[in-house]
Fold this protein.
Amino acid sequence: MSEFLQYFPHALTVTNIITLILGTIGGLILGATPGLSPTMAVALLVPFTFHMNAATGLILLGAVYTSTVAGGAISAILINIPGAPANIATLLDGHPMAKQGKSQAALYICFISSLIGGLFGMVIMVFFTPPLAEIALEFGASEMFWIAIFGITVMAGLSSGSILKGLIGGMFGLLISTIGYSPLLGVPRFVFLDVLTGGVAIVPALIGLFAIPQVFSLVETLGSHIEAPDYKPKRGVLLRTLIENLKMVKALSIGSIAGTIIGVIPGAGGQVAGLIAYDQTRKFSKHPESFGTGNPEGVAAAESANNAMVGPSLIPLLTLSVPGSPTAAVLLGGLLIHGLFPGPDLFLNNADVTYTFIASLVLGQFAMCVFGIAMSRYSYMVMNVPNLHMIAAVTILAVFGTYSVQNSFDDVIVMFALGTLMYVGRKFGFSPAPVVLGIILGPIAENNYLKGKLIAETDVGMFAYFFTGTINNIIILLCAASIAYSVYGEIRAHRKAASKEKQP
Amino acid sequence: MIKDILVSSLVLVGTLSLYISLQWAEEPRAVIFPKVVLMIMAVLSALLLVQSLLIKKAATQGKQKPFPFQRALLCFLMIVAYLFIMESVGFYLSSFLFFVAISFILGRGDMDIRKALTRVGVSVIFMAVLFVLFNKLLLVQTPKGFLF
């Protein structure tokens, strides 16, 4: 805590504050724009941070990460399309409120509740991250190898309807990470074309896998019409809503606590946090029947939960390199291109950058609330941006962002090829998040596997080195539990679908 | 289901081919890790193949929207052309041409004089903002052409 307070003023420099505000405004706009996912927004921004110092770059990414989640609620409330999966629970009561002419109040409740939940989650993160990072000091090569595998199993289960496809995607990412020269022996592998000589860097992979499939998806939806939202701002609503919102103690408490607990569990994500908080608030309510018809408590519970999740979701990321969501996986890429490696090193050798980043996340919650409320009266405008312009703009920014990191046209070709492949992969039920995580965690997995193999061969043998020891066994059990949970979910979904089919 | 059979077979054949190609690696120790990954991928794709052959998936409810293949292919070709001309024409000019081409070719079904002027105007403003921000203020390098 003392380090957090010591470095807090670093987040208050003019450059960092301007970056925070621009990131927040940009994140709110991107989050509110239907068709642009928050993960893609953060992925597109990663290369631009390369030209900034590490702290400022991370502040920008953190601000966008925080505000896209809240911004996604705008389209959920106004046009019944969640801007991000985390906003699914928001639309259950948010859109009925909008239909009743209470869009303004719904949006204000969304931003105020997001601030309360977000601050709660951030406090938990500030207290628990540094001590947990110290546990990682105990990790050797075998533990680090299993941590990389755990990250991939988590993401495989989270982002794909099929665990097998998720795991194949993760393995494909690991394979892509081995393209180029071997890090330990300097021998080329899978260099079938000249453009692959330098291997596949993180930024082209991130941008290609997230942005290019989005471009083609926008092409698919060209011509579809979004109903214009009915939104007429009135005076005096803010104060009235603020008082009403602060009285929703039960909904805000359930949302903040549920969001925080679910945020810490890698892979659970904001979507689960919002839905669980919504469900629990309804169960504890005196009027559960009013949920789904425009109850403001539903919006407060969902939004406080999905923002409370943001801080805790960074705990496994910053301590163990295990991201809690696809957007956090992209954020991990942002850390790595600035030479920052999750774990104790982040808090001991890069304390200034890390704590400045954490402080900016706390400040970002206030910025998100203030600018969210201020911009809500203009928010409907972003929903009118034609898909044609977004297709061109996203493609140009993807090309520009990829080229600007290493001034390499080969990177642009790799980015486009990977993106096109991912678009085809999506048609077959594959998801980009496990692939990205495989590419990011590939070098960690390979280096620690080879190091571990060398140690094992001169010492206790492969099985004893990789499969015994308390920490190894705990992580292996977590990997197995993560896969088992996904398999259980799939079986349950299959049975449900089969029983529905049997019904006349 | 047919999709899953197709994709799992493709992945299986691909991983086995890559595994075989590694037999001729210069240094066997450098390909230990890729070999392990390929073996796991082969097992996973075989499991997916078995799963898709054994488990009958519930039929998709309702009529699915037809896939706009022609539009997607057109967009793909325009991006390829954009990348192809970028190194000779330069980033800013090729990007402007790409923006205009996307707006006019993909949006040709919904066009009048006012919309055409708006689309060109948006392209000019977008590229001007990028040029000032990145070329003049942040001094970020982009592929140079005969104009910029």
Summary: Residues 2-54 of chain B form one domain. Chain B touches chain A through 62 residues (CB under 8 Å). Helices of chain B lie at 2-21, 32-54, 69-89, 91-106, 113-137.
